[in-house]
Amino acid sequence: MKTIITSTLAVATLAFAACNNQTATHEGSHTDSTATAHHHDAAPATTADVTTIQPQFTDVDPAMATAMKGIVDGYLQLKNSLAADDDAAASKAGETISAALAKADVSRLTADQKKIYLNNEEDLKEHAEHISKNAGNIAHQREHFVMMSDDMYELAKAFGGGQPLYRAHCPMYDQNKGAYWLSESATIKNPYMGSKMAGCGAVKELITPGKQ
User: Fold this and answer.
1) Any residues with CB less than 8 A from the CB of 183 and at least 6 apart, and which?
2) pTM of this prediction?
3) Three-class SS of residue 193?
4) I need a surface site. Which of 28, 66, 106, 169 has the fewest CB within 10 A?
């Protein structure tokens, strides 16, 4: 037990150190754009550091799998907009997610599939609406993105997302409470910190694509 606790603390310490080091680099250098870019794009995690998750359902109806892919694509559009500090693009991505959710036909799901989907659908709709209506308030958009990311994680674990999805964690968001997000890439581009600390975080899990 002591070994497990020690290892966990070591990983957490390294994550905080990496993010703190990036902050110092960001604040201490404004002249070398190449160096800044280098620090902002963290290297992908090694395979040994990442837990691989296979989607729960392998018998997802093709039409629903396509709908899920549209929801995930909208989410990734939102994630990239927030990472770029672009609140207007994030607002449009919220609209994209709302439209994708409206296309999902839950009647095509089995009872078990429907239970998981419906447990997250209304929250996703609410967060997408808040994000779409809050261009100019990126802090509020990010608050809803935290909760949306948890909902998307549950759907991705159940249905897949039509592509590999990496679950990453930022330990410093919201006064070190931390937050997760999903990404199409193992390279860290933090949607919570944006350009201030773009490379802060680490990949924790890889969710395989699921049924295509």
Assistant:
1) 76, 79, 165, 166, 167, 168, 189, 203
2) 0.81
3) coil
4) 28
